[in-house]
Specification:
By secondary structure, this protein is an alpha+beta fold. It folds into two domains: 125 residues, Anticodon-binding domain (Rossmann fold, 3-Layer(aba) Sandwich), CATH 3.40.50; 282 residues, BirA Bifunctional Protein, domain 2, CATH 3.30.930. Helices cover 33% and strands 24% of the residues. It contains 14 helices and 21 strands. Strands 3, 7, 8, 9, 10, 11, 12, 13 and 16 form a nine-stranded mixed β-sheet that branches. Strand 17, helix 12 and strand 18 form a beta-alpha-beta unit. It is elongated and about 85 Å long. Bound molecules: zinc ion (ZN). The site of zinc ion (ZN) has 8 residues, from loops.
């Protein structure tokens, strides 16, 4: 009994300042998985990532369809992803700004997009009946910003980005954060003096995007895309292959290019996006679609989730909005523009969608909500008596190493096994279990180290366990 009390006091004192499983806010709402293609309409519209995020208390449907409460564990992960994206944007010489969510409808009228995009725009009016958009994207707004400041050729290239909530009145919001009406997006806008320089910028950013997705350990694909309502001269998309994706990627087995099926079904988009020289004569109604580059009909297709998009815009926006820079000869010339989006909240959900098992979440290690969970023995157990001081020392060292990236599973009334199941369901990459292995024939207590992502378990000495987590932390840092 004495052991239990001692442990209880320690656990409570830790609760006050540390991350503990008993206090983290995870209201769980279980959604039954759809069974083999059947299930209710609600189940059909629910993706694996959405179900697992709700089951684990990470997100909660709000009063508005297609928008979600992000709860502490999910937000920790999203904030890590934001910091990661920041790191790659800084690497590419981009500067972070924050533009208002509201954009005047007048600006969108000037570029013709107010009508073109009308069905998907969410709009509001102020008390003077002036109308604004809850912006889905900021090409007009950023040009308006730049127009207010005289820009010299010396200031170009200019690369401005933000990460803010965007709004789209999806006709059919579904799959949780994968197709939401409100979502966190990283949008970068670039300005160059010439088309040649804009292409150089474009190639540089597309390369950085690849490096970012690589750093998450994701199997992504780049594909030529439709320029759609954003417009411009060239467009590349970044996708994760997934059955719940709403895009269809076509892969040419002959010349190895990938492109969005939209390029086959929309002649106008195809012409703008890839240029007449590389265009096939396929149309939507063609029974034998052919590659947009080599004309081969040896094509395969897969469903995918779009996670990023790059557009070489030329002067599509700078022309109507008169966004100019001053040359060395003191002339005003239109800027060449590019825009580059990453759906941050969608990328988070998409990474979970492609990495998780049917029953357990799996995170890219660098954005997992916690790197390590420590499971002390059940209160009052014989393991608790043996492992108490060892656990406390280990936690102290781990907290110094990882800060708040370590969480203690202090639900001491539950068995180690039960807590371990829950921790693995939540997908925390590493779990240090202070359980049966504490009691050994040699008298040296051992720690069970679980690697959730690859399913391995090692029984390690205290020193080995510390080194293991030290190495894991280094590997998780991008
Ligand atoms: Zn081809």
């Amino acid at each position: 009994m004495a052991g239990k009390q001692t442990f209880g006091v320690v656990a409570v004192s830790l609760c006050r300042r540390k991350h503990t499983m008993s206090t983290v806010y995870r209201p769980v709402k279980t959604i039954a998985p759809a069974k083999g293609g059947g299930g209710s309409t609600q189940q059909v519209n629910i993706s694996k990532s959405q179900r697992l995020m709700a089951d684990n208390g990470l997100i909660r449907q709000s009063s508005c369809p297609g928008s979600f409460h992000l709860l502490p564990v999910a937000l920790r992960s999203q904030e890590k992803l934001v910091r990661l994206v920041d790191k790659f944007m800084e690497k590419a010489g981009c500067q972070k700004i924050q533009m208002p969510i509201l954009t005047s409808e007048n600006l969108w009228n000037a570029t013709g997009r107010l009508n073109e995009c009308a069905p998907e725009l969410m709009t509001v009016a102020d008390r003077h009946n002036k109308r604004f958009l809850l912006s889905p994207t900021h090409e007009e707004a950023v040009c308006d910003l730049i127009n207010g400041c005289q820009t010299s050729y010396r200031q170009l290239p200019l690369r401005l980005y933000q990460m803010t909530d965007k709004f789209r009145d999806e006709k059919r919001p579904r799959f949780g954060l994968l197709r939401a009406r409100q979502f966190l997006m990283k949008d970068l806008y670039t300005f160059d003096t010439t088309e040649e320089n804009a292409i150089r910028t474009y190639d540089e950013i597309v390369t950085i995007y690849g490096q970012l997705f690589d750093s998450l350990g994701l199997k992504w694909m780049k594909a030529s895309g439709s320029t759609g309502t954003i417009g411009g001269k060239q467009s590349d998309e970044f996708h994760l292959i997934s059955e719940v994706g709403e895009d269809n990627l076509i892969h040419c087995n002959s010349c190895n290019v990938a492109f969005n099926e939209e390029l086959l079904t929309n002649t106008e988009h195809r012409t703008v996006a890839v240029g007449a020289a590389t265009m096939s004569q396929s149309t939507a109604s063609s029974p034998n679609p052919t590659c947009i580059k080599c004309g081969s009909s040896d094509l395969s297709s897969s469903k995918s989730i779009e996670i990023g998009h790059a557009f070489l815009l030329g002067t599509k926006y700078t022309q109507p909005l008169k966004t100019m820079y001053i040359t060395a000869d003191n002339e005003s010339v239109l800027m060449e523009m590019g825009c580059y989006g990453i759906g941050v909240s969608r990328l988070l959900a998409a990474a979970l969608e492609v990495s998780s098992t049917d029953k357990e979440l799996r995170w890219p290690v660098s954005i997992a909500p916690y790197l390590l969970s420590i499971l002390p023995p059940k209160g009052g157990s014989k393991e608790a008596k043996v492992g108490d001081s060892l656990f406390q020392n280990f936690y102290k060292v781990m907290h110094e190493l990882l800060g708040n990236d370590v969480i203690i599973d202090d639900r001491l009334d539950q068995t180690v096994g039960k807590r371990l199941l829950d921790t693995k369901k939540l997908g925390i990459p590493y779990v240090a279990v202070f359980g049966k292995s504490l009691i050994t024939d040699s008298g040296t207590p051992l720690i069970e180290l679980q690697d959730t992502n690859n399913g391995t378990v090692q029984t390690l000495s205290y020193r080995e366990a510390v080194n293991f987590i030290y190495d894991a932390k280094v590997k998780s840092e991008v």
